[in-house]
Amino acid sequence: MRRDSIFYKLFQQSPTLLFELLTNPPINADAYRFDSVAVKEPKFEIDGVFLPPENEGAGVVYFCEVQFQKDEQLYERLFAESSLYFYRNRARFSDWQAVIIYPSGNIEQSDIHPHRTLLNGNQVHRVYLDELGDIRSLPLWVALMVLTTVESEQASEEARYLLTRTNQEVSQQGSRAIIDMITTIMLYKFEKLTLTEVESMLGITLKETRVYREIKEEGREEGRQEEAANLIIRLLTKRFGEVSIEIRSSISGLPLLVLEDLSEVLLDFTSLADLLTWLEAVRN
C-alpha cells in the first residue's frame, strides 16, 4: 500500500491536519502551507514541510515524517535533513518542530539513545496512530489517517461508517475531498480487487470520485506508453532486423517521456550497439 502518496494527499487537502495531532498547535495553524522540499549538497528529500505564512515575519517551520516501515537510522536522517534545511533558510524561520507519524510504537528505530534530548523535549513529537483511540470517535481527517492502518477485515466496515458520517457532518462541497480520500485509501488497500468490487464494498459509485478519473487518466497514459514502445520496436526491427527479448523488455519498461526522446534519436543509430549505449546512459 502506497501510504506516502496517501498522506501527501491528506496533507495537501487539509494542511491543518498535522496540528490536530499536536497538544500545542500554533495559533495561526490555519495559515500554514504544506510543501515537500529537496535540500542539495548533499541531496536530501524532506517528505513534508509545513511553512508558516510569509506575511507574518519569521515563524516556526514544521517537518513531518510518515514512517510505516522500520528504519534504524530514521532519526539520524530526519534531524540531519531538518537541521540543514533550517540552516539554509534561517532568515525565514524563528524555530523548527518535527512530527513523526508511526502506525505503532514497534516501528520506531531501536537505538534512540543518541537523540534522547530531542526526543524527550518539546521540539520533536512522536504520534502513534494505534494510540489515538477508536477510529469512530476521531475527527474525520484524523480518522482517515488511522484508516490506512486498519486490518483489511475491518477496513471496509470502517470505511462505510466514515462515508456515512461524512455525508451527515460535512457540506456537499467539503465532503467530496473526504470521499475521494476514503476511496483512494481503499483502492490502495485492496489493489487486487476490481473497481466494481470496491464499489460494492463501499456502497458508492466510483465514477463520481476524483480517484476514478485519475485511474482512467493513468490508463490512458499507460496505453500511450505501450503504443510508443511498440512503434519504436517495429522501427528498430525494420532498420536492424530482429530485436532480442531483452531489448524489447528494456524499451517496454521506459516511461512515455523517455520513449519520446528515443523516437527522436533512434534515426541517428547505426546499429543496435548504439541503442544499447543509449539505454545504458538512460539507466545511469
CATH architecture of the largest domain: 3-Layer(aba) Sandwich
Q: Please state how the strands of the largest beta sheet are arranged side by side.
A: 1-2-3-4-5
Number of helices: 12
Shape: globular
Question: Total number of β-strand segments?
Answer: 5
Strand % is 5-15%
Share of residues in helices: 40-55%
CATH topology of the largest domain, what is it called? Answer: Trna Endonuclease, Chain: A, domain 1
- Give the termini distance in whole angstroms: 28 Å
The biggest beta sheet is recorded as:
5 strands, mixed
Spans of at least 5 consecutive residues with low confidence? none
Mean pLDDT: 85
How would you describe this protein?
This protein is an alpha/beta fold and 284 residues long. It folds into three domains: 131 residues, Trna Endonuclease, Chain: A, domain 1; 62 residues, no CATH class; 72 residues, no CATH class. Helices cover 52% and strands 13% of the residues. It has twelve helices and five strands. Helix 1 packs antiparallel against helix 7. The two termini are 28 Å apart. 22% of the residues are buried.
